[in-house]
Amino acid sequence: MIFAVSIIFIKRSGERGHIPVQMVLFTVEESEDVDRRGLEERMRAFGELLSQTIRRGDVVVRCSNKQYMILLVGTEKENSLIAINRVMKREAKKKENILIHYEINTLISSMNEQAKAAGSSFASWKIETAIRLRRSNCFPS
Fold first, then answer.
1. How far apart are CA 115 and CA 45, in angstroms?
2. Which H or E element spans position 32?
């Protein structure tokens, strides 16, 4: 419950401030040579690695017995790949490697990214908005 409220808060704050937020879901694959206790130990160690690797303002949450989710606040998709690579490199240095898959989902993109997706720059968006306001007499000439 608290986590769901936190995600809603982060999403709304990001939308108001046009702050990008990326959600990354890490899934750890089970292997035949690892029992339930061994998987739990590996998950705990992976959670510690995530907490030590990402920035203090980002959020790390264990979602299930095989998944962790992180929220990267103020990060565009390209920069989230840098953070993921840092996590994966640190995991690869361990003696017992585990197979990890990840997915990146953009919860909020920056205003510039939204304007690019619409086929115009942020500056032209501001000009078009000013023209519309002027035409509707909300903005004096």
1. 41
2. none
Q: How far apart are CA 47 and CA 91, in angstroms?
A: 11
58 pLDDT higher than 60: yes
Contact between 28 and 46 under an 8 Å Cβ cutoff? The reply is yes
Q: What pTM was estimated for this model as a whole?
A: 0.69
What 8-state DSSP symbol labels residue 121? Answer: -
Beta bridge partners of 21: 73, 108
The tokens describing 106, both together, are 């953009």
Residue 122 CB neighbour total at 10 angstroms = 16
